[in-house]
Amino acid sequence: MENINGDRDQCRLAPSPHGFQTTTSNSLSEQESDEQFGQTSVEDSVSDTITDQEASVSDCESSVSGSPSDHFPVFEGLVRLAEGDRVYDLVKRRFELGFASLGVQATVAGIHRNGFGGVMGQARLNTFRIYGQAMEKKCGGNANIRYAWYGASKDDIVKIASHGFGHCGISQNNGLFGGGVYLSPDYSPLESACNSVVDKDGLRHLLLSRVILGKAELVHIGSEQCHPSSEEFDSAVDNLSAPRKYIVWSTHMNTHILPEFVVSFTAPSCLAEFARIPKPSSVPTSPWVPFPVLISALSKFLPPHTVSVISKYHEAHKEKKISRNELVQKIRQIAGDKLLIAIIKSFKSKQLKTPTGLA
Known about the structure:
Blueprint: E1 12-15, E2 19-23, H1 30-53, E3 78-80, H2 86-100, E4 107-114, H3 118-138, E5 145-152, H4 154-163, H5 167-171, E6 180-185, H6 189-193, E7 204-212, E8 216-218, E9 235-237, E10 246-249, E11 257-266, H7 271-275, E12 288-290, H8 291-298, H9 304-318, H10 324-335, H11 337-353
Parallel strand pairs: 8-9
Antiparallel strand pairs: 1-2, 2-12, 3-4, 4-11, 5-6, 5-7, 6-10, 7-11, 9-10
Helix pairs in contact: 1-2, 9-10
């Protein structure tokens, strides 16, 4: 993310979970870098590595270690990744960042990779590819494929990695958001870790899967939905702007989810208590402006056609066709940082004068 040219203490524009915000830092903090990593680097880097090597997983750069130690988990049919391997490090880093952001100490004991061996394994891999390509066509080139976590007992994890989701995958969730498989975004492993079960060796296990989300719709607690509400949608989330749950309907659970990694780890027994603590970054502490308010303010300074272009980019973001960061960069290019900073400061000033934050 670019810094605005100027003095060291000049405001910097950045995307927040809610809209635009400014900070007075001259460089990204470690936490902000980690958040960006969660949005792009893990998904892109790991996905690129996997995609390039899907056809022959046995030839991948990931290596199989020697004979496992007594405490190391063994998963039949899965390939153990060696520490220091590029993919191992990417997955481990993403896992640890998700816990560290909440102050939870979780230690990775090992990572295994699904080899998709045998005729049926290759069939599942090819099925996912076919549905991914179909979703790309349906959604205009963006299938919205994400990495996501799923927690369960070791036995269930093994069954899912080998055979796909079945009744165990559905019954694992609480059914509050309808009938389907509930996964958590790659930046939030804790949500799924709460469903993991400590095995006889004191380890918990999470699946890291690639998930075809397509266009997601919002579902609320108490929903009895078990398939997309219309042809327009493909999956669901509990929150459109900051989802904590991806819901893949039972009708799609073995075509839209590809289990790729099993992460074995140790963590505190009271994980559910940490999950109830809101993330510090969920509410911006720097001045920020919701996108609709920003666009309304820009309409007072920019020609109608220009505002219309910005509105179209905003709609594209809401439809998940472009990322939040892409939207921010587009608005900065069109409106200019000077005008945006003035609007943000004006909005902040009105917030201080009005309890509701609205003029």
